[in-house]
Amino acid sequence: MGFRFDGDALMPAQLSFHNVTLGYDRHPAVHHLDGEVAPGALLAVVGPNGAGKSTLFRGIVGIVKPLTGAISLGGLDVRDIAYLPQIADIDRSFPISVFDFVGTGLWRHTGMFGGLGRRERDAILQALAAVGLTGFEKRTIGTLSGGQMQRILFARVLLQDASVIVLDEPFNAIDAKTSADLVGLVQRWHTEQRTVLAALHDMDLVQAHFPETLLLARSVVAWGETAQVLTPDNLGRARRMCEAFDDTAEACAGDAPRPQAA
Q1: What whole-number distance in Å separates Cα of residue 126 and Cα of residue 146?
Q2: Distance from first CA to last CA of the chain, Å, rounded?
Q3: Helix (H) or strand (E) holding 103
Q4: What whole-number distance in Å separates Cα of residue 106 and Cα of residue 146?
Q5: CA geometry: angle at 221 spanning 2 and 201, to 5°?
Q6: Where do the ABC transporter domain residues begin and end (predicted)?
Q7: C-alpha dihedral over 129, 134, 139, 143, to 10 degrees?
Q8: d(CA 39, CA 14)
Q9: Around Cβ 227, how many Cβ atoms within 10 Å?
Q10: Domain that holds residue 242
Q11: Could you tell me the CATH number of the domain that includes residue 36?
Q12: What are phi and psi of 144, to 5 degrees?
């Protein structure tokens, strides 16, 4: 398995969550998260709108700092994690070409103002070819469709060559062909033993391609094998937890009951 809870004797963790609570200006979004993700895991993170999925991912990549607890990265620097944000978080009015946008995936190696040699330029072209966008190099990102934009986000992740990949809603609002192509890249990363976490809404896609699932509703509802997590009872519980949550509540403190593995 690619997951474990404290006390389970499995391989060393790639990511560890120690009583983590995340939020904004004391506004709670994820509560008392405990658990570990093993190297090479392919983990879907699911839950209703407002469940805290995006906040969890922002916590992993260091955009949001824990209000309580800690997130351990298994010896990695946060810069070693490839992060694919939601399309809505990208300013598509910024006048940058597809080539230059994808090239930002090399910043970890070249620096923000580092020059691009032939090797780097070839790598960008290869990444674009891998996502089916050869010939789009000079187009600005504002001219792309939603599916094309998602493809160049994946191309940027390819260039980062990271051991941990965090994908926030990578298959939303795209056509079936694009979704299938990008799922193929995720499967490739899994085969390469990279650790992949993806926030998803499509339960059929999760059941077909993701062996492990974390069901989140501000707190953990279930975490384990996908078939055991995505039960009607668990999904109903997650929905009721989010509907009942008090958005005016302050971040809680102290210990909370530890969730059980599914």
Answers
A1: 21
A2: 12
A3: helix 98-103
A4: 23
A5: 75
A6: 15-243
A7: -80
A8: 5
A9: 11
A10: 1-76+210-251
A11: 3.40.50.300
A12: -85, 150
258 found inside a domain: no
Residue 71 · residue 16 · CB < 8 Å = yes
Give the tokens for residue 16.
């560890």
Each residue of 101-136: pLDDT tens digit? 999 999 776 655 556 788 899 999 999 999 999 999
Q: Is residue 51 part of a domain?
A: yes
The span from the CA of 218 to the CA of 251, in Å, is 11
Residue with tokens 């391989």: 11
Domain count, the chain: 1
Global pTM reads 0.86
pLDDT in tens, 236-247: 999 999 888 666
Residue 238 within any structural domain of the chain: yes
Dist. CA 177–CA 238, nearest whole Å: 31
Q: Residue 126: which H helix or E strand, with range?
A: helix 118-130
**Amino acid in position 99:** F
User: Could you give the CA distance from residue 30 to residue 64 in angstroms, rounded to a whole number?
Assistant: 11
Q: Does residue 235 form part of some domain?
A: yes
